[in-house]
Amino acid sequence: MALRIPRPHRDDVRIAVGGLLGGVLLWALGIHPRVPTDPAVLWRTSWAPLVPLAVTAACALLRRTRPRTGLLIGTAALALDTVSVGSIVTLVLYTDLMYAAVLYGPPATARRMPWGTGMLTVLGGVVPAAVGRDPRWLLVGVAVGVVAFAPAATGWVVRNHRDAAEAARLRAEQTALLAEVDRTQAVTAERARMARELHDLVAGHLSAIAIHATAALSLDAPRTSRNALTVIRENSVEGLAEMRRLIGVLRAASADREPAAIPTLDGLTALVESARANGLDVRLDARQGDVPTPVGLAAYRIVQESLTNVLKHAAEGPVEVRLQRRDGVLDVRVSSPYRPRDTPRAPGSGAGLAGMRERAALLSGEFAAGPEGGRWTVRTALPLTEGDSA
Q: Which of 10, 17, 230, 311 has its CA 20 to 30 A from that of 169?
């Protein structure tokens, strides 16, 4: 299997090429940190500094992709440079390799390098000075600190700032994502609420219009047709008024408009009278007292939708509407005659029961609807404490 060499970053290529050209220029000008007559210089040939210079420049190509490998090879090249007349550029390139190893290397390397180079700085200056009893050896520790510890510490600081900035960016993205999810959920919930309001407001009036229009078209009796048209007109006007009220609620966000009043249980009597005008025999028994506004609105809408379903589906006979407060719960019960094989007098969408169930669920209440003793009964229990906190 062939070894895949990672492609160096373009900035690393610039550093390597610039360092190599700068080192060659200083070598051509004869600028070296040590003179050939220095006893520490073992390689006195003129081309000797070019070897560690070329190796260190090549290691600069690995400063991002293979930082530890580049540092290891660069250390060997620096050791070779110290036994020749040397090159300032080789030393500078090595400090960059040390910096890059901490900045781009694995987290373990980034944590250990500052501590290791710090200990090496102390030992490289204190131990020789103590053994040789010559304070000038402390300069060795200073040199090690400049070449190794300072770049490593700088890389550690920069890495911490970079990680903190990345963490802040991720938190900002997460916050933006959560805000978008909340906004989407809010829009979905508002659309569902508007759908329930539109259904509850309009369905009853349109059902009455459809039923009485069918009667007016099927019977050839002027008086019956006139009565049916009267009911149709009344429901059309009431439906239009309800639509205008809902539009006023939707426009209430502007500063110069007041929100329209929402229906309460005090309007049950008018609701029942409207159902009686549509031909239903409704009997109301309301003993609920004062209830929280969300509970009152939900109960009103459930009774309203139940009467709409009675108008469309129920058989002839009395309809009972009962509201009773007991043990912190408001019981709502609507009962009507029921014959399973009766054909609906007006088409329905099937959203009525779902809307009532949703209203009860929003207040942590219970909802049930079905045949019971030969009658169709809608039963709802709405907790009053949930309504206070809604």
A: 10
Chain center to CA of 327: 40
Q: How far apart are CA 306 and CA 128, in angstroms?
A: 97
Q: How far apart are CA 308 and CA 210, in angstroms?
A: 12
Residue-wise pLDDT tens digits, 252-293: 554 445 445 577 888 888 888 888 887 788 899 888 888 888
Centre a 10 Å sphere on the Cβ of residue 282 and count the other Cβ atoms it contains: 20
Q: Shortest CA distance to 160 belongs to which of 114, 96, 116? A: 114
* Ordered structural domains, the chain, with CATH: 10-173 (no CATH), 265-390 (3.30.565.10)
DSSP codes, 75-101: HHHHHHHHTBS--HHHHHHHHHHHHHH
**C-alpha span between 70 and 102 (Å, rounded):** 12
Structure tokens at 8: 């160096």
pLDDT tens profile 298-331: 899 899 888 888 877 777 888 999 999 888 899 9
CB 275 within 8 A of CB 307: yes
d(CA 97, CA 386): 65
